Amino acid sequence: MPIQWFPGHMAKARRQVTEKLKLVDIIFELVDARLPISSANPMMHEIIHQKRRVLILNKADMADPSMTEKWLAYYEKQGIRAVAINSKDGQGLHKLTKAAQAEMSEKIERNRLRGMKPRAIRAMILGIPNVGKSTLINRLVKKNITQTGNRPGVTKAQQWIKVGKELDLLDTPGILWPKFEDSDVGFRLALTGAIKDDILDLTEVAEYGYDYVGAFYPTFLTDYLGTEEPLTGKEMLERIAKNRQLMDEEFIDYSRAAEHFVRDFRALKMGRVTLDRPDEYEEVATSEPS
Ligand code: GDP
């Protein structure tokens, strides 16, 4: 369940991540493919320093596939290695080892020239709550013959999952906090369920989602609401309330209608909607520190 973050939580999370970082060669940073920027932790660079990273757009099955292509092109242009996967069904998991090897290739070659024996790449998963970290780890555990073992010299024993011969993955992910000072980011996180429903007004969340889908996927709404009539956010909620008997003569239950809309959005009843768009970020994009 998503928790609400306070400065104490953040400091503790950061400390735990910093400890784990020492154990690994590379980070798999998990984000939600529907909102790759809004579901990323803005302090990632600062926290992981020079550590190599592969960005994983998870839940690609829920995102608009054409936008996922655009996001992959966006990251490629910035020199960030990114892959899209679906942890729930296990699609695309084979990309992880290859991406890690490609990202580590210089170091692997350097070690080889120094005559060092090749060893498995050590990786950890990092991301904000609800992006699918545990789902991915469970998938990888199930898929692989698990040989876990403690490594000496680690205060708290960490378990490793062997993903083939070439990758060792820490079995507990690093958890970072989302940042939602920006109202677009907050609404987008709320719509996908990445933050608790009581943090923002759900009626506003529903109206934000309605406006967004209306702007970028207008035909989805025609099918969902069964009308081509342009409705205001309020009218949309009234329509849902009417269709689902969430009203009587005196009272329209807007918040229940909003709950229905948000639930339907999450269940893809409207379709696969991507909420962050690369063209919003192109101008402010900064490249990776080298
Ligand atoms: P964590 O907090 O990052 O560990 O996230 P979880 O692994 O608990 O996943 C949060 C929710 O997202 C769960 O309901 C998962 O079933 C769902 N989920 C995770 N990965 C995927 C995915 O690739 N596709 C879909 N459709 N759902 C996913």
TrEMBL record:
One of its GO terms (cellular component) is cytoplasm. Coiled coil: none annotated. Residues 14-178 form the CP-type G domain. Gene3D superfamilies: 1.10.1580.10, P-loop containing nucleotide triphosphate hydrolases (3.40.50.300). One of its GO terms (biological process) is translation. GO terms for molecular function: GTP binding; GTPase activity. Its main location: cytoplasm. Keywords: Cytoplasm, GTP-binding, Nucleotide-binding. GTP binds at residues 58-61, 86-87, 130-135, 174. CDD domains: YlqF (cd01856). It is found in: Cytoplasm. SUPFAM superfamilies: P-loop containing nucleoside triphosphate hydrolases (SSF52540). The keyword GTP-binding applies. PANTHER family: MITOCHONDRIAL RIBOSOME-ASSOCIATED GTPASE 1. NCBIfam families: GTPase_YlqF. Belongs to the TRAFAC class YlqF/YawG GTPase family. MTG1 subfamily. Required for a late step of 50S ribosomal subunit assembly. Has GTPase activity. This is Ribosome biogenesis GTPase A. It comes from Brochothrix campestris FSL F6-1037.
